[in-house]
Amino acid sequence: MLDYDLHCHSSISDGTLAPAEVVARAAGRGVKVLALTDHDDTDGLDEARAAAMRHGMTFINGVEVSVSWRSHTLHVVGLGIDPAYPPLAEGLRGVRSGRGERARKMADALAKAGIGGTLQGAYQYAGNPNMIGRAHFARYLVEAGHCKDVKSVFNRYLARDKPGYVPHKWAALPDAIGWIRGSGGVAVLAHPGRYMSGRSSMGKKTMHELLTEFVECGGQALEVVSGSHTPEQYAEFARYAAEFNLLCSCGSDFHGPDESYRDMGRLPDFPLGCRPVWEAWEKNKM
Ligand code: AMP
Ligand code: MN
Ligand code: MN
Ligand code: MN
Fold first, then answer.
1. What percent of the chain is modeled with pLDDT above 70?
2. Which ligand has the minimum distance to the alpha carbon of residue 133?
3. What stretch of H or E contains 238?
4. pTM attached to this predicted model
5. Of 93, 95, 186, 245, which is the most buried if we count CB atoms within 10 A?
6. Which residues are near ligand 3, the ion (C-beta closer than 5 Å)?
7. According to the model, what pLDDT value does residue 208 have?
8. Relative to the CA of 135, which ligand 1 atom is closest?
9. Mean pLDDT calculated for residue range 69-76
10. Mutate to test the pocket of ligand 1, among 40, 74, 119, 154 (most ligand atoms within 8 A of CB)
11. Given 1.10.150.650, 3.40.190.10, 3.30.70.100, 1.10.150.120, which CATH number is that of 99-158?
């Protein structure tokens, strides 16, 4: 079992717990090294780091950057970043800036599909209004009785090509990796299995092209053990990591007690042969 959890969310983005609550939960579940990786925002890091110190845990500054690559939305996690590095801070501000207008368009689209009041409703769930996103809409739609859970809201309304989906242009891949690397962080391609499943997913050829470009841009690691991967996908992406000489990362992608694929920590070990991403920052100490 791994006692590293290098991917999770707080109410600074679309998690349901405050940063200190996320840290307390991780500590209670045996996590020794934690990264908080909110979407496109680093405002939770100070609170999380202070809480991690109280729990005697090692804390890693993280972020999960939303990226548009070809017709796909990808997520790139930065680990060990410096949130004060101006190109990163300004880059993330730019990525966040489109969210308000996108939310209005989503509400209009949902209204056309017969569901009103969703803009106000979604904002009630957004701990940080700058980071309004689909998960906040999903929580409101559940509360208003349109679906039984968040997963069903995505399947019916918010996933790509569904009535409430609004296409959006996020950061470019070389920019996201450049901001992370420039700030001293390690760039990790998050949950690659998600890009290969569902509608409009990419095939193996496109995944090869993506990983080639990711490495060319300075990407260093692949999330192999993810809360959204099956055990078969751990093995599949361990092979991709070996092929592309990438380090391997692990994280629950926890968003909250009631709606995550898995709870924090207690992640299964990497498949044999994986080089853990923490080699990138622990090697100097060994
Ligand atoms: P956004 O950045 O606003 O497009 O929202 C993306 C977030 O929505 C992801 O980080 C997940 O938290 C959530 N999400 C995306 N797809 C699903 C899904 N199929 N089921 C549940 N949550 C999802
Ligand atoms: Mn999320
Ligand atoms: Mn993600
Ligand atoms: Mn995530």
1. 99
2. 1
3. helix 231-243
4. 0.97
5. 186
6. 75, 190
7. 98
8. 8
9. 97
10. 154
11. 1.10.150.650
Long-range contacts of 83-88 (CB under 8 A, 24+ apart): 83/42, 83/45, 83/183, 85/179, 85/182, 85/183, 85/184, 87/178, 87/179, 87/182, 87/183, 88/42, 88/63, 88/179, 88/180, 88/182, 88/183
Nearest ligand 1 atom to the CA of 14 is 12
Q: What is the pLDDT of residue 31?
A: 98
Residue nearest to atom 22 of ligand 1 (CA): 151
* 4-96+169-284: CATH, from 3.40.190.10, 3.80.10.10, 3.30.2310.20, 3.20.20.140: 3.20.20.140
The pLDDT of residue 261: 80
Cβ of 39 below 6 Å from ligand 1: yes
Q: Note the pLDDT tens digit of each residue in 86-111.
A: 999 999 999 999 999 999 999 999 99
14 lines ligand 1 (CB under 6 A): yes
Nearest to 6 by CA among 257, 283, 267: 267
Count the Cβ atoms, other than its own, within 10 Å of residue 177.
27
109 lines ligand 1 (CB under 6 A): no
Closest by Cα among 130, 258, 260 to 191: 260
Instruction: Write the residue with the smallest CA distance to atom 21 of ligand 1.
Output: 151
Model confidence over 8-65: pLDDT tens digits?
A: 999 999 999 999 999 999 999 999 999 999 999 999 999 999 999 999 999 999 999 9
